[in-house]
Amino acid sequence: MKSATRPQQMNTQSPIKKLPTNITGKDYVVGDLHGCYEQLERLLDHVRFDTTYDRLISVGDLIDRGPESLRCLNLLAKHWFHAVKGNHESMMIEFFEPYLVNGYLEYLDELYDNGFLENGGDWIQSYFVPDPGGMTEEFNLGIAMAQAMPSILIVGEGSSRFNVVHAELARSDLNSIFQPVWLDSDLDLWHTNQAIDPNTQEKLYWGRKLQRKKNFPAIESGLSITFCGHTFSENPRQVLSHLCIDTGAFISERRQYVEDAAFGLTLFDVRESRWFKASTGPSKIIESAHDYGVDRD
C-alpha cells in the first residue's frame, strides 16, 4: 500500500554550477531523457560506462512522456550523474508549488494548471495518495532533487571547457551582428554573482530561436561548445557553438516508430567527439563522429 509523506524542502542549488575537468575518466552528455531509461541503459552498456571514473551529464528534461520518469529523476542521487534543469522539471516544480509549501494535497487537479499534466506529466498520478493527501516518499525525494538542479553547468576550463544548458544561450536579438548569444565571459560573471536575469532564465528553459534560424555559423567566438536539448531532430546539429543532442527519445517509444531508428536517445562522448543513438526495442545503436569545428586539443 502506498503511503503519503510530507515533501522535503531541499536547499536550492546555485543557478550555475561548475564541475572540474575529468582527468581520470570520460564525460558523456545525454539528450532529453523523457523517461526513456531503457534506451539509456543500452547506451551506457555500449560505451562501457564506468561509474567509478566516468560522468554522465544531462541537458535536462529527465521526466514526462516516456515510461520511467521517476527512475530517470532518481539518477540525480548518483554521484556520477549531473544535470541541468529542463522546462519539464521547471513545470513540475511550478505545478507542485502549493503542495511543496503546505505539505497537503487533496486533489491533483487543484494545483496550478500550467500545462504540466497535458505535456506528459500525467505519470505523477501513480504516486498520488488521496488519503491522507500527498505524494509518496519516493516522489517527494525526486522532486526535492529536481528543485536543486542548476540552470547551467560549466565543465572544465580552458580548451577542454564545455557548457551545458537545456535550451539555448540566445540573446533577445539574434540578428545582432555584435553578439547573438551569451559568451563564456557572461556565464562566468553570472557564476560569480550567482544570479541570472529572469528573462534570460526563461530562454534557458524554453528558447528555440537558434535551432529554427538558418545560415548561422557552427561556432561563435568566445563561447565554448555548449550542449543543449529541447528542440528535437533526427541527429545532433551545431549552431553558434550550441550542440543540440535532443533526438526525440520519447518519439521512438511510440508504437508507430518502433521500427524507425530515425529518432532515439543520443549519448555524446565529449573527449572522442562521437555520438551514439539508441531507439526503443532491439534496433542497433547508431554511432557517428562529430566535427566540433574548433581545436580542442
Uncertain spans, ≥5 residues at pLDDT below 50? none
Strand order of the largest sheet: 2-8-9-10-12-11
Question: What is the helix tally?
Answer: 8
- Terminal CA distance reads 55 Å
* CATH secondary-structure class: Alpha Beta
Rg from Cα:
19 Å
Helix proportion of residues, in percent?
10-25%
Class based on secondary structure composition and strand pairing: alpha/beta
Share of residues in strands: 15-25%
CATH superfamily: Metallo-dependent phosphatases
Average per-residue pLDDT, rounded, comes to: 90
The coarse silhouette is: globular
Molecular structure report:
With 297 residues, the protein is of the alpha/beta class. The chain has one domain: Metallo-dependent phosphatases (Purple Acid Phosphatase, chain A, domain 2). It is 22% helix and 18% strand. The protein is built from 8 helices and 15 strands. The strands form 3 sheets. It has a 6-stranded mixed sheet, covered by helices on one side. The termini are far apart. The model has no long low-confidence stretch (mean pLDDT 90).
Q: Secondary-structure blueprint of this entry?
A:
Blueprint: E1 4-5, E2 16-19, E3 27-30, H1 37-46, E4 55-58, H2 69-73, E5 81-83, H3 87-95, H4 97-102, E6 128-129, E7 134-136, H5 137-147, E8 152-155, E9 162-165, H6 184-193, H7 198-206, H8 209-212, E10 226-228, E11 237-239, E12 242-244, E13 265-269, E14 274-278, E15 286-289
Parallel strand pairs: 2-8, 3-4, 4-5, 9-10, 10-12
Antiparallel strand pairs: 1-7, 3-13, 6-7, 8-9, 11-12, 13-14, 14-15
